[in-house]
């Protein structure tokens, strides 16, 4: 399908600029159609559209014959061809203006969307930072609670150990006290037992002395006094 466009090459730029100015000021037709040529500087566009070569045209159809009744020519100023050629140019200019306006509008919309996207990205990143901050605060609170619980348990264990140690010390002191009392009691019992044994021995010696004095006479008084003094000394020791 024909694209309705063509390329004309010039040997130099001034000739190309003159042709463009002349075709813009007047209406240049390629055939009998009232659609004039719109001349613009060429810019390369790779739109994969090959167009329709001249040799591929069907030159036998009535439409081709009708268009080619008249060759390339400029319309006379104020003529019917010139009037409708100008209308085509005006419509082309309007299309170009609208196309440019639409392009500018699209660029503005793209910039607006880009700004919205950047703001949305900023909000998203800010929300992520807030979430990370909340998670860190929660983790900090959790660690603080765990530390306080461990500290409280350590204090409770210390108090419990101190109480247990105090009870053990009291039990040890009581055991030592009871042991000392038991030893003292046994010592007293042993002292009393020894005193009783000694008293029995002295009583036996006294009896022997008395019998010996009766048999032999004399000095029994002195012996009795000596035994009595010895007995009194043992009694004083036991009373201590």
Automatic annotation (TrEMBL):
- The answer to whether keyword Coiled coil applies is yes
InterPro entries, per this entry? NOPS
Carries keyword Coiled coil? yes
- Coiled coil located at which positions? 92-189
Q: Which UniProt keywords apply?
A: Coiled coil
**Record's Pfam families?**
NOPS
Q: Which residues form the NOPS domain?
A: 36-89
Its protein name is Hrp65 protein
């Amino acid at each position: 399908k024909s694209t309705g466009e063509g390329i004309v090459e010039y040997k130099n730029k001034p000739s190309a600029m003159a042709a463009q100015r002349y075709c813009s000021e007047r209406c240049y037709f390629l055939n009998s159609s009232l659609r004039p040529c719109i001349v613009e500087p060429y810019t390369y566009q790779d739109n994969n559209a090959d167009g329709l070569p001249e040799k591929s045209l069907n030159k036998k159809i009535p439409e081709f014959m009708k268009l080619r009744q008249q060759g390339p020519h400029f319309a006379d100023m104020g003529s019917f061809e010139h009037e409708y050629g100008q209308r085509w140019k005006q419509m082309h200019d309007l299309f170009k203006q609208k196309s440019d306006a639409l392009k500018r509008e699209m660029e503005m919309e793209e910039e607006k969307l880009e700004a919205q996207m950047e703001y949305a990205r900023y909000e998203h990143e800010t929300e992520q930072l807030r979430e990370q901050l909340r998670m860190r605060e929660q983790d900090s609170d959790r660690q603080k609670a765990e530390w306080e619980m461990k500290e409280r348990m350590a204090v409770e264990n210390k108090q419990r150990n101190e109480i247990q140690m105090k009870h053990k010390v009291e039990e040890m002191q009581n055991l030592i006290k009871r042991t000392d009392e038991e030893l003292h009691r046994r010592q007293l019992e042993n002292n009393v037992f020894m005193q009783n044994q000694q008293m029995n021995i002295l009583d036996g010696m006294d009896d022997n002395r008395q019998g010996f004095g009766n048999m032999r006479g004399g000095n029994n008084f002195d012996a009795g006094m000596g035994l009595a003094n010895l007995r009194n000394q043992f009694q004083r020791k036991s009373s201590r």
